[in-house]
Amino acid sequence: MIAIPSGFSPEEYLSIEHENTIRHEYRRGLVYAMAGGSDDHSRLAINLLTLINFHLRDGECQFFSGDVKVNYAAEFFYYPDAFVTCDPRDKNDRYVKRYPKLIAEVLSPSTKKFDRTDKFEDYQQLESLEEYVLISQDEMCVECRRRVKDGGGERWETVVYCAGDLVMLQSIELEIAIAELYRGVSLER
């Protein structure tokens, strides 16, 4: 990820982003152009969104693809590959959501380190977030990080699912055969 030299305010970023045809993410004053994804990246995101769509149907929760931003205060605006919000406050803005309960990222070679570290730290600031899902393009492997509240505190637990497993997205009560998620994905490359 290469930052565009600047010191943008969130308001400046949103103004520019609204008029731009190329998507950019914002993190603490820096703006990053988003790289294009691979065919497998796209297929994994579409498969996940399709499974979520069939599961949620016409309920109160809404799901979104990488075209809608997730925001926390003046800290960041990201375009997750997929996310779900059930908070009615998220119906007030068509372009930015602030209360997701599930966020999923398909890992790309250029962003996987960032997705696993800094982006995860940023997402943890979202009090509504219950589950952060990382989907590998290189192997049949899904990592689910879940917020666990116990006593007076909270922590994050990680469960890794591999070939043959059923992936449980606890935040939306959806169980997925990992083979369905990876349908049409070429792992042999």
Provide a descriptive summary of the structure in words:
The protein has 189 residues and is of the alpha+beta class. The chain has two domains: 1-34, no CATH class; 37-181, tt1808, chain A. Helices cover 23% and strands 35% of the residues. The protein has five helices and 14 strands. It has helices spanning 10-19, 39-56, 112-116, 118-123, 178-181; strands at 3-4, 24-27, 30-33, 62-65, 69-72, 76-78, 82-85, 96-97, 100-106, 131-135, 141-150, 153-162, 166-169, 174-177. A six-stranded mixed sheet has the order 1-3-2-6-5-8, with helices on one face. A hairpin with a 4-residue loop joins strand 13 (166-169) and strand 14. The longest helix has 18 residues, at 39-56. The chain is globular, with a radius of gyration of 16 Å. The model has no long low-confidence stretch (mean pLDDT 89). Keywords: Endonuclease, Hydrolase, Nuclease. Residues 10-172 form the Putative restriction endonuclease domain. It holds the Pfam family Uma2. GO terms for molecular function: endonuclease activity. This is Uma2 family endonuclease.
Distance between the termini: 24 Å
Which strand-content bin applies to the residues?
35-45%
Strand order of the largest sheet: 1-3-2-6-5-8
As a whole number of angstroms, the C-alpha radius of gyration is: 16 Å
Q: Helix and strand succession?
A: EHEEHEEEEEEHHEEEEEH
Q: Which CATH architecture of the largest domain would you pick?
A: Alpha-Beta Complex
Q: Assign the CATH superfamily of the largest domain.
A: tt1808, chain A
Low-confidence stretches: none
Write down the overall mean pLDDT.
Answer: 89
Assign a percent range to the helix content. Answer: 10-25%
According to CATH, what is the topology of the largest domain? tt1808, chain A
| Number of separate domains | 2
How many helices? The count is: 5
Structural class: alpha+beta
Q: State the name of the first-level CATH class of the largest domain.
A: Alpha Beta
Largest sheet: 6 strands, mixed
Count of extended strands: 14
How does the overall form come out from the CA principal axes?
A: globular
